[in-house]
Specification:
Number of helices of chain B: 10
Distance between the termini of chain B: 58 Å
Structural class of chain B: alpha/beta
Largest sheet of chain A: none
CATH superfamily of the domain at 5-84 and 157-243 in chain B: P-loop containing nucleotide triphosphate hydrolases
Radius of gyration of chain A: 22 Å
Largest sheet of chain B: 6 strands, mixed
Oligomer: heterodimer
Strand order of the largest sheet of chain B: 6-7-8-3-9-10
CATH class of the domain at 5-84 and 157-243 in chain B: Alpha Beta
Distance between the termini of chain A: 41 Å
Strand content of chain B: 15-25%
Order of helices and strands of chain A: HHHHHHHHHHH
Number of strands of chain B: 10
Radius of gyration of chain B: 19 Å
CATH architecture of the domain at 5-84 and 157-243 in chain B: 3-Layer(aba) Sandwich
Helix content of chain A: over 70%
Structural class of chain A: mainly alpha
Number of helices of chain A: 11
Shape of chain A: globular
Helix content of chain B: 25-40%
Amino acid sequence: MHHVHLDNWSRGASPLHARDPRAKILALLVFLIVLATTPSNAALTLGIDATLLIAGILIAGLPLGNLLLRAMVVLPFSLTFGVISWLAGDRLRALALVEKSYLSAAAVLLIVGTTSLPALLSGLERMGAPRVLVLVAQFIYRYLFVISEQAQHMRLAAASRQGDPRFHRKGRFRAAAGALAVLFARSYYRADGIHRAMLARAFTGRFQLLNSLRFRFSDGVFLLAAAAFLILVRVQ
Amino acid sequence: MTPLIEVRGLHFQYEDGTKALDGVDFTLDPGETVALFGANGSGKTTFVLHLNGILRGQGDITVCGMPLGKETLPAVRSKIGMVFQDSDEQLFMPTVLDDVAFGPLNLGSTPHQAIHLAEAALDQVGMQHASGKAPYHLSAGEKKRVALAGVLAMNPEILVLDEPNTFLDPPGQSNLVHLLKSLPQAKLIITHDTHFAAALATRAVFFEKGKLVAEGPVDEIVQRFNWRYSALPADLRYSAQRRF
Protein backbone atom coordinates (compact mmCIF):
# COMPACT_ATOMS: atom_id res chain seq x y z
CA MET A 1 0.00 0.00 0.00
CA HIS A 2 1.18 3.51 -0.84
CA HIS A 3 0.80 4.94 2.65
CA VAL A 4 2.89 2.18 4.26
CA HIS A 5 5.79 2.78 1.84
CA LEU A 6 5.60 6.54 2.22
CA ASP A 7 5.47 6.18 5.99
CA ASN A 8 8.61 4.01 5.95
CA TRP A 9 10.41 6.38 3.57
CA SER A 10 9.56 9.41 5.66
CA ARG A 11 11.41 7.97 8.64
CA GLY A 12 14.80 8.29 6.92
CA ALA A 13 17.62 10.53 8.05
CA SER A 14 18.90 12.44 5.00
CA PRO A 15 19.57 16.21 4.80
CA LEU A 16 16.26 16.50 2.94
CA HIS A 17 14.40 14.64 5.72
CA ALA A 18 15.88 17.07 8.25
CA ARG A 19 14.46 20.19 6.57
CA ASP A 20 11.47 21.99 8.06
CA PRO A 21 8.30 20.88 6.24
CA ARG A 22 7.44 24.50 5.40
CA ALA A 23 10.71 24.91 3.49
CA LYS A 24 9.99 21.73 1.54
CA ILE A 25 6.38 22.67 0.82
CA LEU A 26 7.41 26.10 -0.49
CA ALA A 27 10.25 24.60 -2.58
CA LEU A 28 7.74 22.13 -4.03
CA LEU A 29 5.38 24.98 -4.82
CA VAL A 30 8.15 26.85 -6.69
CA PHE A 31 9.04 23.65 -8.55
CA LEU A 32 5.43 23.08 -9.62
CA ILE A 33 4.96 26.71 -10.75
CA VAL A 34 8.21 26.66 -12.71
CA LEU A 35 7.23 23.36 -14.29
CA ALA A 36 3.74 24.55 -15.18
CA THR A 37 5.00 27.73 -16.82
CA THR A 38 7.82 26.09 -18.76
CA PRO A 39 7.08 26.22 -22.53
CA SER A 40 6.43 22.90 -24.24
CA ASN A 41 9.48 23.25 -26.45
CA ALA A 42 11.92 23.99 -23.58
CA ALA A 43 13.32 20.47 -23.48
CA LEU A 44 16.53 21.60 -21.76
CA THR A 45 14.65 23.23 -18.84
CA LEU A 46 12.47 20.15 -18.42
CA GLY A 47 15.59 17.98 -18.54
CA ILE A 48 17.32 20.05 -15.84
CA ASP A 49 14.18 19.91 -13.67
CA ALA A 50 14.10 16.12 -14.06
CA THR A 51 17.82 15.87 -13.20
CA LEU A 52 17.29 18.04 -10.11
CA LEU A 53 14.44 15.81 -9.04
CA ILE A 54 16.51 12.64 -9.47
CA ALA A 55 19.36 14.25 -7.53
CA GLY A 56 16.88 15.06 -4.71
CA ILE A 57 15.63 11.45 -4.64
CA LEU A 58 19.21 10.13 -4.49
CA ILE A 59 20.23 12.62 -1.75
CA ALA A 60 17.14 11.59 0.24
CA GLY A 61 18.16 7.95 -0.07
CA LEU A 62 14.75 6.93 -1.43
CA PRO A 63 14.55 3.96 -3.84
CA LEU A 64 14.73 5.69 -7.24
CA GLY A 65 13.07 2.96 -9.31
CA ASN A 66 10.28 2.39 -6.80
CA LEU A 67 9.48 6.11 -6.51
CA LEU A 68 9.51 6.65 -10.29
CA LEU A 69 7.26 3.63 -10.69
CA ARG A 70 4.81 4.99 -8.11
CA ALA A 71 4.76 8.38 -9.83
CA MET A 72 3.25 6.61 -12.85
CA VAL A 73 -0.06 6.69 -11.00
CA VAL A 74 -0.82 9.97 -12.84
CA LEU A 75 -0.18 8.54 -16.29
CA PRO A 76 -3.66 7.12 -16.93
CA PHE A 77 -5.04 10.66 -16.60
CA SER A 78 -2.30 12.66 -18.30
CA LEU A 79 -1.85 10.09 -21.09
CA THR A 80 -5.51 10.46 -22.01
CA PHE A 81 -5.11 14.20 -22.54
CA GLY A 82 -1.71 13.61 -24.14
CA VAL A 83 -3.24 11.28 -26.72
CA ILE A 84 -5.95 13.85 -27.47
CA SER A 85 -3.29 16.55 -28.05
CA TRP A 86 -1.26 14.12 -30.15
CA LEU A 87 -4.27 13.30 -32.34
CA ALA A 88 -5.00 17.03 -32.64
CA GLY A 89 -1.56 17.40 -34.19
CA ASP A 90 0.25 19.10 -31.29
CA ARG A 91 2.82 16.39 -30.55
CA LEU A 92 5.20 18.65 -28.64
CA ARG A 93 2.43 19.73 -26.29
CA ALA A 94 1.31 16.13 -25.80
CA LEU A 95 4.81 15.07 -24.74
CA ALA A 96 5.23 18.10 -22.46
CA LEU A 97 1.87 17.43 -20.81
CA VAL A 98 2.80 13.86 -19.93
CA GLU A 99 6.31 14.83 -18.85
CA LYS A 100 5.16 17.73 -16.66
CA SER A 101 2.45 15.76 -14.91
CA TYR A 102 4.83 12.88 -14.31
CA LEU A 103 7.56 15.15 -12.89
CA SER A 104 4.98 16.89 -10.68
CA ALA A 105 3.83 13.55 -9.24
CA ALA A 106 7.45 12.48 -8.63
CA ALA A 107 8.19 15.81 -6.89
CA VAL A 108 5.17 15.45 -4.62
CA LEU A 109 6.24 11.89 -3.79
CA LEU A 110 9.75 13.13 -2.99
CA ILE A 111 8.42 15.68 -0.48
CA VAL A 112 5.86 13.31 1.05
CA GLY A 113 8.49 10.57 1.18
CA THR A 114 10.91 12.76 3.12
CA THR A 115 8.41 14.32 5.52
CA SER A 116 6.32 12.45 8.08
CA LEU A 117 2.64 13.15 7.68
CA PRO A 118 2.29 14.73 11.13
CA ALA A 119 5.13 17.14 10.27
CA LEU A 120 3.69 17.82 6.83
CA LEU A 121 0.26 18.60 8.22
CA SER A 122 1.74 20.65 11.02
CA GLY A 123 3.70 22.62 8.40
CA LEU A 124 0.56 23.18 6.32
CA GLU A 125 -1.32 24.36 9.39
CA ARG A 126 1.45 26.79 10.33
CA MET A 127 1.29 28.12 6.79
CA GLY A 128 -2.39 28.94 7.20
CA ALA A 129 -4.20 25.81 5.99
CA PRO A 130 -7.61 25.47 7.72
CA ARG A 131 -7.18 23.56 10.97
CA VAL A 132 -10.31 21.47 10.42
CA LEU A 133 -8.98 20.29 7.06
CA VAL A 134 -5.63 19.41 8.60
CA LEU A 135 -7.28 17.49 11.44
CA VAL A 136 -9.53 15.55 9.10
CA ALA A 137 -6.48 14.56 7.02
CA GLN A 138 -4.67 13.61 10.21
CA PHE A 139 -7.50 11.38 11.42
CA ILE A 140 -7.94 9.75 8.03
CA TYR A 141 -4.24 8.91 7.92
CA ARG A 142 -4.18 7.65 11.51
CA TYR A 143 -7.14 5.31 11.03
CA LEU A 144 -6.25 4.25 7.48
CA PHE A 145 -3.95 1.68 9.07
CA VAL A 146 -6.59 0.43 11.51
CA ILE A 147 -9.34 0.22 8.90
CA SER A 148 -7.10 -1.43 6.29
CA GLU A 149 -6.07 -3.99 8.93
CA GLN A 150 -9.74 -4.69 9.65
CA ALA A 151 -10.44 -5.02 5.93
CA GLN A 152 -7.61 -7.54 5.60
CA HIS A 153 -8.97 -9.59 8.51
CA MET A 154 -12.40 -9.61 6.89
CA ARG A 155 -10.93 -10.61 3.52
CA LEU A 156 -9.11 -13.52 5.17
CA ALA A 157 -12.26 -14.55 7.02
CA ALA A 158 -14.23 -14.47 3.76
CA ALA A 159 -11.53 -16.33 1.83
CA SER A 160 -11.33 -19.06 4.47
CA ARG A 161 -15.04 -19.78 4.07
CA GLN A 162 -14.96 -19.72 0.27
CA GLY A 163 -15.02 -22.70 -2.06
CA ASP A 164 -13.56 -22.61 -5.56
CA PRO A 165 -13.53 -18.90 -6.43
CA ARG A 166 -14.04 -19.58 -10.16
CA PHE A 167 -17.59 -20.77 -9.54
CA HIS A 168 -18.70 -18.11 -7.12
CA ARG A 169 -18.12 -14.79 -8.81
CA LYS A 170 -21.59 -13.49 -7.95
CA GLY A 171 -21.27 -14.71 -4.38
CA ARG A 172 -17.88 -13.05 -4.05
CA PHE A 173 -19.30 -9.75 -5.24
CA ARG A 174 -22.11 -9.98 -2.67
CA ALA A 175 -19.64 -10.87 0.07
CA ALA A 176 -17.42 -7.91 -0.85
CA ALA A 177 -20.42 -5.57 -0.81
CA GLY A 178 -21.46 -6.92 2.59
CA ALA A 179 -17.92 -6.56 3.92
CA LEU A 180 -17.82 -2.96 2.76
CA ALA A 181 -21.07 -2.23 4.62
CA VAL A 182 -19.74 -3.89 7.77
CA LEU A 183 -16.48 -1.95 7.46
CA PHE A 184 -18.43 1.28 7.19
CA ALA A 185 -20.53 0.42 10.26
CA ARG A 186 -17.41 -0.52 12.24
CA SER A 187 -15.72 2.72 11.25
CA TYR A 188 -18.79 4.60 12.44
CA TYR A 189 -18.71 2.87 15.83
CA ARG A 190 -14.98 3.40 16.07
CA ALA A 191 -15.49 7.13 15.48
CA ASP A 192 -17.94 7.09 18.38
CA GLY A 193 -15.37 5.33 20.57
CA ILE A 194 -12.66 7.82 19.62
CA HIS A 195 -14.96 10.71 20.49
CA ARG A 196 -15.61 9.18 23.91
CA ALA A 197 -11.89 8.72 24.49
CA MET A 198 -11.35 12.37 23.55
CA LEU A 199 -14.08 13.56 25.92
CA ALA A 200 -12.59 11.44 28.71
CA ARG A 201 -9.37 13.42 28.32
CA ALA A 202 -11.10 16.76 28.79
CA PHE A 203 -11.58 17.57 25.08
CA THR A 204 -13.79 20.62 24.77
CA GLY A 205 -14.11 20.84 20.99
CA ARG A 206 -10.93 22.73 20.22
CA PHE A 207 -7.68 20.95 19.42
CA GLN A 208 -4.60 22.17 21.24
CA LEU A 209 -1.47 21.00 19.45
CA LEU A 210 2.17 20.89 20.49
CA ASN A 211 3.41 22.33 17.18
CA SER A 212 7.07 21.83 17.80
CA LEU A 213 8.33 22.90 14.35
CA ARG A 214 11.42 25.09 14.11
CA PHE A 215 12.41 26.93 10.93
CA ARG A 216 16.20 27.06 11.10
CA PHE A 217 18.72 29.12 9.15
CA SER A 218 19.63 26.02 7.10
CA ASP A 219 15.96 25.67 6.09
CA GLY A 220 15.99 29.23 4.78
CA VAL A 221 19.21 28.58 2.84
CA PHE A 222 17.73 25.39 1.36
CA LEU A 223 14.55 27.17 0.29
CA LEU A 224 16.35 30.16 -1.22
CA ALA A 225 18.88 28.00 -3.07
CA ALA A 226 16.22 25.68 -4.48
CA ALA A 227 13.94 28.55 -5.53
CA ALA A 228 16.80 30.62 -7.04
CA PHE A 229 18.11 27.66 -9.02
CA LEU A 230 14.68 26.70 -10.37
CA ILE A 231 13.78 30.27 -11.37
CA LEU A 232 17.20 30.81 -12.96
CA VAL A 233 16.84 27.66 -15.06
CA ARG A 234 13.34 28.73 -16.05
CA VAL A 235 14.21 32.27 -17.20
CA GLN A 236 17.35 31.26 -19.08
CA MET B 1 -13.06 9.55 55.12
CA THR B 2 -14.63 11.28 52.10
CA PRO B 3 -15.19 8.78 49.28
CA LEU B 4 -13.56 9.51 45.92
CA ILE B 5 -16.65 8.37 44.07
CA GLU B 6 -20.16 8.18 45.41
CA VAL B 7 -23.03 7.04 43.19
CA ARG B 8 -26.63 6.93 44.37
CA GLY B 9 -29.63 5.52 42.52
CA LEU B 10 -28.15 5.63 39.00
CA HIS B 11 -30.56 4.71 36.22
CA PHE B 12 -29.87 4.75 32.50
CA GLN B 13 -31.76 3.64 29.42
CA TYR B 14 -30.34 3.61 25.88
CA GLU B 15 -32.26 5.25 23.03
CA ASP B 16 -33.46 1.86 21.76
CA GLY B 17 -35.17 1.29 25.11
CA THR B 18 -32.58 -1.08 26.62
CA LYS B 19 -32.44 -0.54 30.37
CA ALA B 20 -28.69 -0.54 31.05
CA LEU B 21 -28.53 0.66 34.68
CA ASP B 22 -31.24 0.09 37.21
CA GLY B 23 -30.61 1.91 40.48
CA VAL B 24 -26.87 1.47 41.01
CA ASP B 25 -25.30 2.55 44.34
CA PHE B 26 -21.54 2.51 44.59
CA THR B 27 -18.71 4.00 46.65
CA LEU B 28 -14.97 4.11 45.97
CA ASP B 29 -12.68 5.09 48.85
CA PRO B 30 -9.15 6.51 48.54
CA GLY B 31 -6.49 3.83 47.98
CA GLU B 32 -9.01 1.18 46.94
CA THR B 33 -8.83 -0.99 43.85
CA VAL B 34 -12.22 -2.41 42.93
CA ALA B 35 -12.86 -5.09 40.31
CA LEU B 36 -16.11 -4.90 38.36
CA PHE B 37 -17.40 -8.35 37.39
CA GLY B 38 -20.48 -9.28 35.43
CA ALA B 39 -21.62 -10.86 32.18
CA ASN B 40 -21.32 -9.04 28.84
CA GLY B 41 -24.07 -6.46 28.64
CA SER B 42 -24.64 -6.37 32.40
CA GLY B 43 -23.93 -2.61 32.55
CA LYS B 44 -20.30 -2.38 33.70
CA THR B 45 -19.00 -0.19 30.87
CA THR B 46 -22.18 1.88 30.81
CA PHE B 47 -21.69 2.48 34.53
CA VAL B 48 -18.09 3.72 34.27
CA LEU B 49 -18.97 5.97 31.31
CA HIS B 50 -21.26 7.81 33.72
CA LEU B 51 -18.49 8.57 36.17
CA ASN B 52 -16.94 11.28 34.00
CA GLY B 53 -20.16 12.41 32.36
CA ILE B 54 -19.73 10.76 28.95
CA LEU B 55 -23.14 9.18 29.44
CA ARG B 56 -25.77 10.88 31.55
CA GLY B 57 -28.47 9.02 33.39
CA GLN B 58 -30.67 9.75 36.36
CA GLY B 59 -29.15 9.67 39.82
CA ASP B 60 -26.47 11.40 41.88
CA ILE B 61 -22.76 11.10 41.20
CA THR B 62 -20.12 12.82 43.32
CA VAL B 63 -16.44 12.70 42.35
CA CYS B 64 -13.80 13.95 44.82
CA GLY B 65 -16.51 15.90 46.62
CA MET B 66 -17.84 17.53 43.42
CA PRO B 67 -21.38 16.72 42.34
CA LEU B 68 -21.19 15.79 38.65
CA GLY B 69 -22.78 18.48 36.52
CA LYS B 70 -22.14 20.70 33.52
CA GLU B 71 -20.01 23.15 35.52
CA THR B 72 -17.90 20.52 37.26
CA LEU B 73 -17.36 18.36 34.15
CA PRO B 74 -13.84 19.62 33.24
CA ALA B 75 -12.68 19.26 36.87
CA VAL B 76 -14.21 15.78 37.18
CA ARG B 77 -12.56 14.65 33.94
CA SER B 78 -9.21 15.80 35.28
CA LYS B 79 -9.75 13.62 38.38
CA ILE B 80 -10.78 10.43 36.54
CA GLY B 81 -8.37 8.87 34.06
CA MET B 82 -10.17 6.41 31.82
CA VAL B 83 -8.30 3.73 29.88
CA PHE B 84 -10.53 2.19 27.24
CA GLN B 85 -10.56 -1.45 26.16
CA ASP B 86 -9.42 -0.79 22.60
CA SER B 87 -6.20 1.24 22.72
CA ASP B 88 -6.57 2.15 19.04
CA GLU B 89 -9.58 4.26 19.95
CA GLN B 90 -7.60 6.06 22.62
CA LEU B 91 -4.43 6.71 20.62
CA PHE B 92 -5.70 9.05 17.95
CA MET B 93 -2.89 11.57 17.67
CA PRO B 94 -0.11 11.22 15.07
CA THR B 95 2.73 10.54 17.51
CA VAL B 96 2.96 9.03 20.99
CA LEU B 97 4.14 12.32 22.51
CA ASP B 98 1.30 14.27 20.86
CA ASP B 99 -1.17 11.73 22.17
CA VAL B 100 0.05 11.71 25.77
CA ALA B 101 0.19 15.52 25.76
CA PHE B 102 -3.42 15.73 24.50
CA GLY B 103 -4.97 15.61 28.01
CA PRO B 104 -2.65 18.16 29.68
CA LEU B 105 -3.14 20.60 26.75
CA ASN B 106 -6.91 20.32 27.18
CA LEU B 107 -6.53 21.03 30.88
CA GLY B 108 -4.77 24.31 30.11
CA SER B 109 -1.07 23.38 30.21
CA THR B 110 1.24 25.29 27.88
CA PRO B 111 2.91 23.19 25.14
CA HIS B 112 6.14 23.27 27.16
CA GLN B 113 4.41 22.05 30.34
CA ALA B 114 2.44 19.45 28.37
CA ILE B 115 5.63 18.02 26.87
CA HIS B 116 7.18 17.84 30.34
CA LEU B 117 4.10 16.06 31.78
CA ALA B 118 3.88 13.71 28.79
CA GLU B 119 7.54 12.76 29.04
CA ALA B 120 7.20 12.11 32.78
CA ALA B 121 4.12 9.91 32.21
CA LEU B 122 5.86 7.98 29.42
CA ASP B 123 8.81 7.46 31.74
CA GLN B 124 6.43 6.18 34.43
CA VAL B 125 5.11 3.45 32.11
CA GLY B 126 8.53 2.72 30.59
CA MET B 127 7.72 4.05 27.12
CA GLN B 128 9.82 7.20 26.85
CA HIS B 129 11.82 5.66 23.99
CA ALA B 130 8.64 5.60 21.86
CA SER B 131 7.70 9.27 22.20
CA GLY B 132 8.39 10.09 18.53
CA LYS B 133 6.76 6.95 17.14
CA ALA B 134 3.38 6.73 15.47
CA PRO B 135 0.89 4.69 17.57
CA TYR B 136 0.31 2.16 14.78
CA HIS B 137 3.94 1.06 15.05
CA LEU B 138 3.46 -0.13 18.63
CA SER B 139 2.60 -3.62 19.89
CA ALA B 140 -0.64 -4.22 21.81
CA GLY B 141 1.18 -4.10 25.16
CA GLU B 142 2.99 -0.90 24.22
CA LYS B 143 -0.26 0.70 23.07
CA LYS B 144 -1.85 -0.14 26.41
CA ARG B 145 1.08 1.44 28.26
CA VAL B 146 0.91 4.58 26.13
CA ALA B 147 -2.86 4.78 26.64
CA LEU B 148 -2.22 4.59 30.38
CA ALA B 149 0.46 7.29 30.09
CA GLY B 150 -2.13 9.45 28.30
CA VAL B 151 -4.30 9.50 31.41
CA LEU B 152 -1.43 9.58 33.94
CA ALA B 153 -0.19 12.80 32.30
CA MET B 154 -3.42 14.40 33.51
CA ASN B 155 -2.44 13.50 37.07
CA PRO B 156 -5.79 11.86 37.97
CA GLU B 157 -6.82 10.67 41.41
CA ILE B 158 -8.80 7.73 40.06
CA LEU B 159 -7.98 5.30 37.26
CA VAL B 160 -10.78 3.50 35.45
CA LEU B 161 -9.62 0.61 33.29
CA ASP B 162 -11.98 -1.24 30.94
CA GLU B 163 -10.72 -4.80 30.42
CA PRO B 164 -7.10 -3.65 30.44
CA ASN B 165 -5.53 -7.07 29.81
CA THR B 166 -7.53 -7.83 26.66
CA PHE B 167 -5.28 -8.44 23.60
CA LEU B 168 -2.20 -8.80 25.84
CA ASP B 169 -0.01 -11.90 25.85
CA PRO B 170 0.88 -13.47 29.25
CA PRO B 171 4.15 -11.49 29.70
CA GLY B 172 2.28 -8.33 28.72
CA GLN B 173 -0.41 -9.08 31.32
CA SER B 174 2.20 -9.73 33.97
CA ASN B 175 3.96 -6.44 33.16
CA LEU B 176 0.65 -4.61 33.34
CA VAL B 177 -0.10 -6.04 36.80
CA HIS B 178 3.30 -4.84 38.06
CA LEU B 179 2.77 -1.43 36.49
CA LEU B 180 -0.73 -0.98 37.92
CA LYS B 181 0.41 -2.14 41.36
CA SER B 182 3.07 0.57 41.33
CA LEU B 183 0.56 3.37 40.66
CA PRO B 184 -0.80 5.11 43.76
CA GLN B 185 -4.21 6.07 42.35
CA ALA B 186 -7.48 4.40 43.39
CA LYS B 187 -8.58 2.06 40.61
CA LEU B 188 -11.74 0.71 39.13
CA ILE B 189 -11.08 -2.28 36.88
CA ILE B 190 -13.61 -3.94 34.59
CA THR B 191 -12.40 -7.46 33.89
CA HIS B 192 -13.48 -11.03 33.26
CA ASP B 193 -10.08 -12.31 34.41
CA THR B 194 -10.40 -13.32 38.04
CA HIS B 195 -6.66 -13.96 38.46
CA PHE B 196 -5.90 -10.48 37.14
CA ALA B 197 -8.51 -9.04 39.51
CA ALA B 198 -7.24 -11.03 42.48
CA ALA B 199 -3.71 -9.72 41.88
CA LEU B 200 -4.85 -6.10 42.00
CA ALA B 201 -8.23 -5.58 43.62
CA THR B 202 -9.01 -5.10 47.27
CA ARG B 203 -12.73 -5.56 46.65
CA ALA B 204 -15.05 -6.73 43.87
CA VAL B 205 -18.57 -5.85 42.85
CA PHE B 206 -20.88 -7.88 40.63
CA PHE B 207 -23.23 -6.46 37.97
CA GLU B 208 -26.30 -8.32 36.77
CA LYS B 209 -28.90 -6.87 34.38
CA GLY B 210 -27.95 -3.29 35.18
CA LYS B 211 -27.92 -3.79 38.94
CA LEU B 212 -25.02 -3.98 41.33
CA VAL B 213 -26.09 -7.18 43.07
CA ALA B 214 -23.14 -7.99 45.32
CA GLU B 215 -19.89 -6.66 46.69
CA GLY B 216 -17.14 -8.09 48.84
CA PRO B 217 -13.66 -9.63 48.72
CA VAL B 218 -12.65 -10.85 45.23
CA ASP B 219 -12.53 -14.55 46.20
CA GLU B 220 -15.91 -14.40 47.87
CA ILE B 221 -17.59 -12.80 44.83
CA VAL B 222 -15.85 -15.19 42.45
CA GLN B 223 -17.01 -18.23 44.40
CA ARG B 224 -20.52 -16.94 44.95
CA PHE B 225 -21.12 -16.41 41.22
CA ASN B 226 -18.91 -19.29 39.95
CA TRP B 227 -17.00 -16.59 38.09
CA ARG B 228 -13.85 -18.39 36.93
CA TYR B 229 -12.69 -20.66 34.12
CA SER B 230 -12.31 -23.57 36.52
CA ALA B 231 -16.08 -23.36 37.05
CA LEU B 232 -16.30 -25.45 33.87
CA PRO B 233 -17.75 -28.90 34.50
CA ALA B 234 -15.05 -31.39 35.45
CA ASP B 235 -15.50 -33.40 32.23
CA LEU B 236 -14.71 -30.33 30.08
CA ARG B 237 -11.58 -29.27 31.95
CA TYR B 238 -8.46 -30.37 30.05
CA SER B 239 -10.67 -32.73 28.04
CA ALA B 240 -8.66 -32.09 24.84
CA GLN B 241 -5.41 -33.25 26.46
CA ARG B 242 -7.01 -36.37 27.88
CA ARG B 243 -8.37 -37.41 24.52
CA PHE B 244 -4.91 -37.57 22.93
